[in-house]
């Protein structure tokens, strides 16, 4: 799948999170560039959220949250919103376990990803990606 630009969220700093189910599922795992690790909330369902700091303002062309999922179908973030620098909110956007890039045109440094609709349970993310405009 073609992406709209370079991925800049890998290695971002997690500045706040709704919860973490354990150290093994820490929020930092959502931005570590590794789909084999994931952030899991402690059962937040539709109330799960994570805030990341990209380290600098970025002209963003695309965003994706690749959701974690349990074998029984729970824990999937189906739709989400993204709030930029504590101001404007974008979305709802499609989540899910497949990579779906939501093309956007925004500039920001601190992005808060909020689960809007989920299948409940220990929602979270296998990976969050932010693509800088080329």
Automatic annotation (TrEMBL):
InterPro entries: FA58C, Galactose-bd-like_sf. Pfam families: F5_F8_type_C. Residues 1-133 form the F5/8 type C domain. It comes from the Bacteria. This is F5/8 type C domain-containing protein. The lineage of its organism: Bacteria, Bacillati, Actinomycetota, Actinomycetes, Geodermatophilales.
């Amino acid at each position: 799948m073609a992406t709209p630009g370079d991925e800049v969220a890998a290695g971002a700093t997690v500045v706040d999170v709704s919860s973490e189910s354990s150290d093994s599922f820490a929020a930092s795992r959502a931005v570590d560039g590794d789909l084999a690790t994931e952030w899991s909330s402690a059962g937040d369902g539709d109330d799960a959220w994570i805030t990341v700091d990209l380290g600098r303002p970025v002209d963003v062309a695309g965003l994706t949250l690749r959701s974690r999922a349990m074998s029984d179908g729970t824990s999937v973030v189906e739709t989400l919103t993204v709030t930029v620098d504590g101001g404007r909110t974008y979305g709802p956007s499609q989540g899910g376990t497949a990579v779906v890039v939501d093309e956007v045109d925004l500039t920001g440094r601190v992005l808060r990803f909020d689960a809007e609709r989920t299948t409940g349970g220990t929602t979270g993310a296998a990976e969050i990606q932010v693509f800088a405009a080329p």
